[in-house]
From TrEMBL:
Membrane-related topology note: Multi-pass membrane protein
Domain of life: Eukaryota
Annotated compartments: Membrane
UniProt-listed Pfam families: UNC-93
GO CC aspect terms: membrane
Annotated protein name in UniProt: MFS general substrate transporter
Length: 460
């Protein structure tokens, strides 16, 4: 096999997924930290402004996400990530401007722009994460990405805490926004080191399957026809549920705990996400079982854990209501149980979303198709988040909000099981059908069954 140069070593799936994780650490990871500060880190009286910005963000995200695969496949994953990451820096900069000049319109506009940018960003992210690794490593690589991504939330929380230890105001310091913008701009620059699929060399000498470039109208048709893919339709309840619970969980953190306990909860919430993704990633790549077998086993474990946590959460929710006005601190006797529950909310979130990415990755190896799947997933997810935040805004009883979250997740599992049961053992072509390129590497392609499925969908 040809000796790899330094550049080619950087273009291996593992290094590329690590690079992707760093970009997401700097951009959406820091965005998560900013959101976790409450009201975008500004004064609590500005919650309405932040809600308006988030409404614009998720609304645009949901619309653009459905068509993001066309954009990604037309200009490529590298430049899609770069364009998408700029939106995160702009959003943080808008809060910096508001902190100094109180220009509220810029914050809402930045939210809408970020929604559009995030839609294409996550399409490219999903394409890279699900198509670059070998099939036997897809679960582990999802876990590596998820760990790096969520470390951004932890890092951002630590930075905010360090810069505001002596700050007695209701909002964070201007320097906090400056730090966030700088880190996000680092992510923008780092996105330029992402390699296109055709340049990625796997350890076994193969390269990522690369479909022939399509005209943008054909790409748009391909995105629309994702709606005819029965597996994606079956997964819609799961996609809706995957971020639905954020509004409820973040509200519990704000209502039940005091400021110091909220900061601790926020850090551990993202920390347990790292643990959860690493655990399920190892299980999903366990090679002594068939891919279908480990997918169904992981799903069964996921069901038991998620149902147990939400059952405990509902019992806890019955102990207080919307008018709770005695926040609990981390030194108070009643802190331990709710603290563990909140950590487990983060743990189950990572299990659930990591499994969704693995399942979509098991459906295809084609980067173009996976870009459409990822865009569809994130668009549906954002639509669910927008609806859930709207429900939360009307101040319905928290016990009903908790029950809605629990039931939506419960309903999704039978449909996920049907899709997992139909997972094929591989989407790779047999060795005798692989083609060597001019540089001595093996060009891996999608198998005949997957090719027929894609062609049938596009010609429908």
């Amino acid at each position: 096999m040809t000796q790899l140069t330094f550049l080619q070593k950087c273009n291996t799936p593992l290094i590329q997924v690590v690079f992707l994780g760093i970009v997401c650490l700097c951009c959406p990871g820091m965005f998560n930290a900013l959101s976790g500060l409450g009201a975008g880190g500004s004064m609590s009286s500005n919650v309405a402004l932040t809600d308006a910005a988030n409404g614009a963000l998720y609304g645009c995200f949901a619309i653009v996400g459905f068509f993001a695969g066309t954009f990604t496949n037309t200009i490529g994953v590298k430049y899609t990530l770069t364009i998408g990451s700029i939106g995160y820096a702009l959003y943080s900069a808008a809060f910096w401007v508001y902190d100094r000049k109180q220009v509220s319109g810029f914050v809402v506009a930045a939210g809408a722009i970020l929604g559009c940018c995030a839609g294409v960003f996550w399409s490219a992210q999903g394409s890279i994460m699900m198509s670059y690794p070998e099939e036997k490593n897809k679960g582990k690589y999802v876990a590596i990405f998820w760990a790096l991504f969520n470390f951004g939330g932890i890092l951002g929380s630590i930075i905010a805490l360090a810069l505001n230890l002596e700050n007695q105001a209701g909002g964070v310091s201007t320097g906090t926004y400056t730090a966030f913008v700088v880190i996000m701009l680092v992510g923008v620059v780092f996105s330029l080191v992402i390699a296109s699929p055709s340049k990625v060399v796997r350890p076994n000498g193969t390269r990522v399957a690369v479909a022939e470039a399509s005209h943008w109208t054909a790409e748009l048709k391909g995105v629309l026809l994702v709606w005819k893919e029965w597996r994606m339709i079956y997964l819609i309840p799961a996609f809706l549920a995957s971020n639905w619970f954020y509004s409820y969980q973040f509200r519990i953190n704000a209502v039940y705990f005091d400021a110091s306990a909220r900061a601790l909860n926020d850090t551990m919430y993202w920390g347990l996400q790292i643990v959860g993704s690493l655990m399920i990633g190892v299980l999903l790549d366990y090679q002594r079982m068939t891919r279908r077998g480990r997918g169904l086993l992981a799903l069964a474990i996921l069901f038991l854990v998620v149902m147990g946590v939400w059952a405990g959460g509902f019992v806890f929710q019955l102990t207080f209501d919307n008018d709770f006005n005695t926040p609990i601190g981390w030194k108070d006797p009643g802190f331990g149980g709710p603290f563990v529950l909140y950590m487990l909310y983060g743990f189950t979130d990572s299990l659930y979303q990591s499994y969704m990415y693995w399942l979509m990755g098991a459906m295809s190896n084609d980067p173009s198709l996976l870009a459409r799947y990822a865009g569809f997933y994130k668009a549906t997810q954002s639509a669910g988040a927008a609806i859930s935040f709207g429900i939360d805004a009307v101040n319905i009883p928290l016990k009903w909000e908790c029950l809605i979250c629990w039931l939506l997740v419960f309903v999704s599992f039978p449909l996920i099981a049907v899709v997992a049961h139909n997972v094929s053992e591989t989407n790779e072509v047999p060795a005798e059908n692989q083609i060597n390129d001019d540089e001595g590497f093996t060009r891996s392609s999608i198998n005949s069954n997957e090719k027929a499925h894609i062609e049938q969908t596009l010609s429908a």
